[in-house]
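User: My advisor, Dr. K., asked me to get a structural model of this assembly before our group meeting. I'm new to this, so sorry if the format is off. These are the inputs:
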Amino acid sequence: MSTWVTQLRKGLMEFCILNLLQHGESYGYEILQSLQQIEELVVTDSTVYPILSRLRKDGYLKVQVKPSSSGPPRRYFSLTALGRQRVEEMNLYWTNLQVGIDKLKRGNPGDEK
Amino acid sequence: MSTWVTQLRKGLMEFCILNLLQHGESYGYEILQSLQQIEELVVTDSTVYPILSRLRKDGYLKVQVKPSSSGPPRRYFSLTALGRQRVEEMNLYWTNLQVGIDKLKRGNPGDEK
DNA sequence: CTCCACTACTACGCAAAGCAGTATACTGGT
DNA sequence: ACCAGTATACTGCTTTGCGTAGTAGTGGAG
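Assistant: The format is fine. Below is the predicted structure of the whole assembly, which you can bring to the meeting.
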């Protein structure tokens, strides 16, 4: 994958995963599949699991283990209150960022006219 | 600045600078000021200059030195053909990415309805 | 029994942003 | 002439997250 995409993803993956979990709990493998459905976001499990661990350690996610009928027990992650708050902050930043970049693309904001 | 923003910026700064240069040549100091006008993008020169060097080394930018009446000579950067091509690729990816993330936010694409 | 899909995890390397420091040219005040 | 301040450019070193590759255990199909 091109370097710029690799770099752009930093932070983005976390953002995506948190947004995904807004729809309810899920486990690593499933999250992985969901992300893979979006071409621009394809990742491997070795990218996803560390993020989940980190988010949990930082108190944004909580885990609940449930047995699976087709493999090892699943670890279901869901947002904590802190996590929900964080997603909102991130979404706000993301929105503003898009506005900012749009400005930048169509000419300098309040510069020459 | 929060970690996630720091991380999110990776790759993004390059993207922004290239987009800025689509409006014509500019030099480091000026580019810096332009970026600073957008709150979500504030950077320091030590972030901008390495990117400019890199982009030049990779053939996306070309440089032309011109004397300044109020300081050391300015190094004007402008897009090469390769650079213009790259901006377009990036913009395409960026657009698709936004679509993808939007999908992800409003529920899984083609999943349950 | 063996292979494969499901599920989870870890170690190491790389690349980019951020902080802090260096360097040079010009301008204005004393 | 000197010094301060601003315009302009650059370079370590650190931090952090993604990517690659490898490990490991369960359950079902052949």
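One thing worth pointing out at the meeting: Residues 1, 6-7, 9-11, 13-14, 43-44, 46-47, 50-51, 54, 67-73 of chain B lie near DNA strand C (CB under 10 Å from a C1').

User: Perfect, thanks a lot.
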